[in-house]
Design a protein that fits this description.
Blueprint: E1 2-3, E2 6-8, H1 14-17, H2 29-39, E3 43-46, E4 49-52, E5 56-58, H3 66-87, H4 97-117, H5 122-134, H6 142-154, H7 162-174, H8 202-212, H9 220-236, H10 242-253, H11 261-273, H12 280-290
Antiparallel strand pairs: 1-2, 2-5, 3-4
């Protein structure tokens, strides 16, 4: 995305950018120091990670400050928000910023709330909750999400595939609800190795990898599975599609539940907007939240 002569680098470009001359953002501490040493770039510490001081790179010779780049990124998100609202006829072209956010927020909230309450299969419901929380608007649906997750915690049968098993485990543990790692037993052996690794269910293996970080010290097979899935994901990256490569790269750098929520929301909003089956009301609500 370009705006006023500025090229934005989204979080999804972290691992592809590592192979170009342009320094990536959101890289790990070790990688940041390596970039700094090899390219003589300055880095600033933010939280537990290092972020390049040039979050977006100007096409001119003068680098932008962090404040300037953040303003431009926000303007870019707002432009996307306004375009979507105009397309859906929710605002007019003459509405100001406050009118856009205030007049539509409640309407969008009700639409997403209805989606959470509509009957559907567990897999669809879990993915919706995961998306809501990644977009940073989970606090607005605490009661609805809690009710759904409590139902999942009380459901004693396992899921039919590895992806949903990992997602269910991660959602319940991350939100403080009880669940057992025994549901993984039909997918992994006592050494943490996936029984049917030849199935090439890379999305499922990725889901289990992220779930394994929420295992307790007593869940040895799941802890062993962390090492097995990490190795498998690293080896599978060259042969996976770009979208999946991006997801794997980010997970290997930092599992999803450990990422800073505001930063994850800003990074994920662009990624979610590109998904063909995204829920428009939820996307716009996420944009309203960060804009």
């Amino acid at each position: 995305m370009k705006l006023a002569g500025v090229t934005f680098i989204s979080y999804s470009s972290v691992h592809t950018a590592a192979f170009s001359k342009r320094p990536p953002i959101g890289i790990s501490v070790r990688e940041a120091y390596s970039w700094k040493k090899n390219n003589k770039l300055s880095c600033t510490r933010f939280g537990t990670s290092l972020f390049m001081s040039t979050k977006c790179q100007s096409t001119s010779s003068s680098p932008l400050s962090i404040d300037d780049s953040t303003k431009l990124e926000t303007q870019g998100h707002y432009s996307l928000l306004k375009s979507m609202l105009l397309h859906q006829g929710m605002v007019s072209d003459y509405d100001n910023n406050d009118q856009v956010t205030k007049s539509t927020s409640e309407e969008l909230f009700k639409k997403v709330q209805m989606a959470l309450k509509e009957p559907c299969d567990r897999s669809t419901k879990m993915r919706l909750i995961d998306t809501i929380q990644r977009l940073g608007v989970g606090h607005r649906f605490e009661e609805e999400i809690k009710l759904i997750l409590q139902g999942l915690a009380e459901f004693n049968s396992g899921e039919v595939n590895l992806f949903d098993t990992g997602l269910r485990f991660r959602l319940l543990r991350h939100n403080g609800l009880p669940t057992s790692s025994d549901f993984f037993d039909k997918f992994i052996n006592e050494n943490g190795e996936i029984k049917d690794v030849s199935s090439q269910d890379t999305w499922g293996i990725l889901s289990m990898y992220e779930a394994s970080y929420l295992a307790t010290n007593s869940e040895e097979s799941l802890l062993k599975a962390m090492e097995f899935t990490r190795s498998h994901l690293k080896n599978s990256m060259p042969s996976t599609p770009p979208e999946l490569q991006n997801q794997i790269g980010k997970a290997l750098e930092l599992p999803r539940h450990l990422r800073m929520a505001p930063l994850e929301a800003r990074n994920y909003i662009d990624e979610y907007s590109q998904e063909l089956n995204h829920y428009p009301a939820l996307l716009v609500l996420g944009l309203v939240s960060i804009s």
